[in-house]
Amino acid sequence: NDYKSMFHLADIKFKMIGDLDGAKKIYEKILKNYSSIKYKQMALSNIIDISIVKGDLENAKITFLQGIKFNPQSAKLYFNLAITCDNMGNGKLAKEYYSKAFELDPNLKN
Known about the structure:
Blueprint: H1 2-17, H2 20-33, H3 37-53, H4 57-70, H5 75-87, H6 91-104
Helix pairs in contact: 1-2, 2-3, 3-4, 4-5, 5-6
C-alpha cells in the first residue's frame, strides 16, 4: 500500500535524517488521504513527537486532541495532553485532562 511506503519515508526523514518538517508534511498527508486507523494513529503520535522536539506545544496539544477523536478511551492520550497543558502554563485545563485520564485508567495514579 502507498501509505506504508509514505510512512516509511517519513520515518526515515524523522528518525534517521532529522528532517522534521519534511517528515511532518508526509505524516499530515497520511492523516488526510488514507483511512488506515493504525497508520493514522502512528502518524499522529509522530507529529506529536516532532512538535515536542521543536518546542511547539500548541501544535502538540492540537494533535493530542485529534488523537482523542480517533481513540476517546485512551487514558494515555489524555494524560500526555494534561502534561502538555501543564507545560504551557494552563494548570486548570491540565487538571481536567488528568482527571479524565485517571477516570479512564485509575492505574495511571500508581
